[in-house]
């Protein structure tokens, strides 16, 4: 039988406390776990059997479904719940006993497995960027990647808590949305050498027959030595901030602060243009964060170095923020190495965790949560803010290839609606350099509206 360590039980209790608004105590009890309210003697909720599958790093767990409505419980998405880890479920799944409730599904094990990405540890079936791809995940294979399974099961647990302790009032959450922008390329031309500009001009003229772009390239290069040109296709920062402000959002811009590969940026964070850009973002009330370069995801010392480099620039510019977070370039992530590296670099949150090849709920949740390292069995300071959708995952032909039509719009909106239903946070990544067409602007502007 799997045993949770004391730090793991404390971490699980902290997840429940954030979700429901009370302090809980979780204790081993026979072969299972007993959940009590910390300042209440009366009754408990028992999870009599724990599932060892939730401590294993592979994607071959069995899978089943639980029809909550049929059993007299509410399903927040009004659909049967994915029940991973089991082939068959006991009936009834939830029972009332003399002074307690019994839950015959390992909701806490599921939470531990999903939030801590236990599935991904030591995997070797990675993509060409060394990433664990959605298509190899249990969630994708069993069709629940677009379901926040942890949030759905905690919604059921909330109902059990409410029945067990009718006197308590569960914490109410509100739906929110967060937009962020990885600054891979702040300018299409400014930071490139003339040799490259000339090659790009030839492409505009000969391949695309685009005279406007042909003329604009040298013009932008020549006229933006002090600040980004208004005509630069990647200089969408003012527009992004306008749109965010119109909808009561704060944009977060994550800057690359190192060069570890040719996949990295062509700018340096200390460049006067970039510093001016950061000042402007800060003045307008938006956030600046880190986008660790391509080769850093297995190298904690480099993540720390790049974080310190950004901190130094921000300090020189007098930029002070309560939060200092960001996202890995290319969403490169090795769990828990990269997580621990972010933690040790003194960052407050990371928002990398979505899959590049499919959108949805890689961590099974759209709520931010405190991180835990299952290898060292230690709670970390860093918080994980799951990413739900990156624009190119849905639009680009190398991933889902839905382009800009109704199908793409619906996919984004379905994900947003799911987050709204569970009262979580819809996090959307849209690169500042991904507004090459009016279609991008129209789609983005539609997605950030409050009422869609
Ligand atoms: Zn990037």
Automatic annotation (TrEMBL):
SUPFAM superfamilies according to UniProt: Glycoside hydrolase/deacetylase
Gene3D superfamilies noted in UniProt: Glycoside hydrolase/deacetylase
Residues covered by the DUF7033 domain: 103-192
Domain of life the protein comes from: Bacteria
One family name in Pfam for this protein: DUF7033
Protein name as annotated: DUF7033 domain-containing protein
């Amino acid at each position: 039988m799997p045993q949770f360590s004391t730090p793991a039980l404390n971490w699980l209790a902290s997840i429940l406390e954030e979700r429901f608004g009370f302090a809980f105590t979780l204790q081993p009890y026979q072969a299972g776990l007993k959940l009590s309210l910390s300042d209440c003697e009366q009754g408990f909720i028992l999870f009599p059997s724990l599932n060892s599958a939730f401590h294993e790093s592979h994607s071959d767990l069995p899978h089943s479904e639980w029809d909550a409505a049929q059993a007299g419980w509410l399903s927040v998405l009004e659909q049967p719940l994915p029940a991973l880890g089991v082939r068959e479920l006991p009936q009834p799944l939830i029972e009332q006993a003399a002074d307690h409730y019994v839950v015959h599904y390992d909701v806490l094990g599921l939470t531990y497995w999903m939030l801590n990405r236990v599935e991904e540890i030591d995997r070797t079936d990675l993509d060409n960027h060394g990433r664990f791809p959605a298509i190899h995940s249990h969630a994708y294979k069993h069709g629940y990647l677009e379901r926040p399974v942890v949030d759905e099961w905690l919604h059921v647990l909330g109902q059990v808590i409410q029945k067990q302790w009718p006197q308590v009032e569960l914490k109410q959450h509100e739906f929110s949305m967060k937009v962020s922008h990885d600054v891979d390329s702040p300018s299409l031309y400014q930071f490139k050498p003339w040799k490259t500009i000339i090659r790009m001009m030839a492409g505009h003229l000969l391949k695309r027959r685009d005279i406007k772009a042909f003329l604009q390239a040298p013009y932008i290069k020549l006229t933006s030595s002090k600040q980004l040109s208004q005509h630069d296709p990647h200089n969408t920062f003012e527009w992004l901030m306008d749109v965010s402000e119109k909808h009561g959002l704060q944009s977060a811009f994550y800057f690359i602060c190192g060069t570890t590969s040719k996949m990295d940026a062509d700018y340096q964070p200390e460049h006067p243009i970039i510093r001016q850009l950061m000042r402007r973002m800060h003045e307008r009330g938006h956030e600046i964060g880190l986008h660790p370069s391509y080769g850093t995801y297995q190298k904690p010392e480099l993540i720390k170095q790049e974080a310190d480099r950004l901190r130094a620039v921000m300090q020189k510019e007098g930029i002070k923020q309560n939060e200092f977070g960001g996202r890995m370039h290319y969403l490169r992530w090795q769990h828990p190495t990269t997580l621990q590296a972010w933690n040790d670099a003194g960052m407050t949150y990371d928002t990398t965790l979505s899959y590049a090849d499919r959108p949805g709920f890689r961590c099974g949740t759209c709520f931010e949560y405190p991180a835990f390292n299952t290898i060292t069995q230690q709670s970390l300071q860093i918080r994980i803010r799951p990413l739900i959708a990156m624009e190119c995952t849905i639009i680009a032909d190398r991933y889902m290839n839905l382009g800009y039509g109704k199908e793409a719009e619906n996919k984004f909106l379905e994900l947003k609606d799911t987050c709204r239903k569970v009262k979580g946070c819809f996090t959307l990544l849209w690169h500042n350099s991904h507004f090459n067409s009016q279609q991008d602007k129209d789609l983005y502007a539609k997605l950030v509206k409050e009422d869609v």
